[in-house]
Design brief:
Layout: H1 7-10, H2 18-23, E1 33-37, E2 44-50, H3 67-70, H4 93-98, H5 108-111, H6 116-119, E3 129-130
Parallel strand pairs: 2-3
Antiparallel strand pairs: 1-2
Protein name: UPF0260 protein C8D92_102331
Family: Belongs to the UPF0260 family.
Pfam families: CxxCxxCC (PF03692)
Length: about 150
Amino acid sequence: MAATIPFWQRKRLTEMTPKEWESLCDGCGKCCLTKLEDEDTGEVWYTDLACQYMDGDSCQCTVYGERQHKEPDCIVLSPENLQDFHWLPSTCAYRLLSEGRPLPDWHPLITGDPSSVHEAQISMRQRTVPNSQVAEDDWEEHIIHWVI
């Protein structure tokens, strides 16, 4: 009986295998966006600037296996550090499950289709500019308010 219940409904995040954990990622690309934080309030704003290694069409990291080597600021989510990432978008499966909420209907684990996140217009597909192409002093001009 337990095998018919999807793993994300029957396991805690800390009980998941690495493969299960990785499969929670919907491929939206929002983690790869440059975020700006107000040092006084802790408020976080998303920009439309993406890591230079994010493919703008697939929203996938082009150097995933070596991302921390190539981009030292890249953050790796884990069950142990998930609570540190209050900035995760409200659509993020890691955040949803940690808050005891279900995955959305468009999530690839529900649909069986990795492109469902793009079809639902949740992803950053073709909405980003590589942050390496914009001077850091100009990043505030790229703040977006439509990321959920």
